[in-house]
Request: fold
Amino acid sequence: METLHVDLDHVLRSFRLSLALDVAAETVALVGPSGAGKTSVLRAIAGLLRPERGRVALGAETWLDTGSRVDLPPERRRVGLVFQEYALFPHLSVRANVAFGGRDRVDELLERFGIAGLADARPGAISGGERQRVALARALARDPGVLLLDEPLSALDAHTRRRVRTELREVLGDLGLPTLIVTHDFEDATSLADRVGVLVDGRLLQVGSPSELVASPADAFVAGFTGANLLRGVASVSANGLTEVALDAGFTAYSADEARGRVALAVYPWEVSVARDAPDDSAVNHLRAPIASIVTLGNRARVRIGPVTAEVTTQSAERLGLREGEVVVASFKATGARLLSVE
Amino acid sequence: MRPSAFGVALWASACVALSFLLLPIVAIFSELTLGELRAGLTSDVARDALRVTLETNLVAMVLIVLFGTPTAYLLASREFRGRTLLVTLVELPLVLPPAVAGIGLLAAFGRLGLLGGTMESLGIDIAFTKTAVVLAVTFVASPFYVRTAIAAFEAVDRDLVAASRTLGAGPARTFFRVALPLAAGGLGAGAALAFARGLGEFGATIMFAGSLQGVTQTLSLAIYQEFDVDFDTALAIGALLVVGSALVLLAAKVIPAWRRSTSTSTTFFAPSASR
Reply:
């Protein structure tokens, strides 16, 4: 399997998109807020957008090289691009849509994606999840060397989304193609991709496996994006060998990281425990505050206590009898409190 | 619910406007007996004019669609400097007084016109021929088609065009398999509007092509010639044009809606093709 090389430099609206990335036979997700330039990356790879400077190559095949004036049109780049709204041809049947990409494997693809029964239907008459499978089958009918997915799950409702995410992960695993996904949802990214790149204002802040990003976020934005609580404050040396952070929210917290001046303290919700009274345990940070909200998601409850959100099991929340408005203590260890510089 | 004074005013204004617009049409039909209508329409003048009108308009429509469709697609799908200017130029005949169109065509293609010398040396003389009628109709009717066609192509989702390209189809195949079918409803409507305008063409034709019965005399010109000779024949031809124009207008409204319904038709109740 060939590797996709991407190196782009292009001015977009208010910022410069500048990115270099290699995608081997793996799934890489570019994740970031909307308007960060994610879709432009896919369009540039597919040949739908011509960057001011850049190089795109699949193995030894150069698709774009502004230096040597190579710029293949989209139809000569072996890409399978699945559009955000799928862009199925409304005037063609499901079968004709898939056959548009290539006629050789139509039946096999319809069968494989479970859409053979819909072969004669128009895209307007099928569900969102089915449309996504048609779009994927159509992209693969071309026998692409690279698969590009633009927000593959955002057009689906929450219920369908979870199921399609699982299906998609299996399909991508079986294909073994270099795959680039863009999404604004970190959870979608971590569940689909082997590596995740955080793209903000056209710059890749950090690329790594989902667990690497969570374990050592490069900066406050990545930490926030991966779901951490971000508490801003001023760091100074403390007598106990830890760093003392006077939080803007009015509390004092301690971290094992070394830092001075303005910082963001990042702590993940699942590293925050909740108790009725300050426990006598290894945690040094105890924040006493009333519960602002409790949101239950399946078997987890997200409890907002003062400036932090704690994630506990619904079982624990029930055992403790947590109610909104009650004063409780949120605790986390100094080693779980990462200090990140803020600009 | 009691109607408001404002509502009453709206309805009253609409009644005045509609009555005024419909009165001449009602008059055409009420002034004619069925026998007079038949006699008028079977007269030589009317039959010759109908033949000339259909022949010249059909040729004009072929020219308009053949050259107008690529022009509209180019203007709708490409960004380039001067695009707005070009669109404005294409639309100019729309607002040009027909007399100006007539004198302009004479100045361009007439014997003493811009291309007159060249054409004379080639042995071509088109002023006051059927070709002149075709040119006049094409000139005044084409903006109706091109304008609607530009809008129809612009309405095609750009992602669909992009999807076609990434699926391996070049620009030409993308045009024929995606843009053209999806814009077909709008193109049909535009063609119907242009045809309606062409059917009624008068000013440019009478100046550039004259009014020779059986050669350049179209239905509109025949009305003008007959109205002080044989008013009933003129009325009968008028009635024919009213019906023809109304049908074309109806087609212009129905075609896009019908295309939309087939392009996204729900084959919900069709037997599923599971094997």
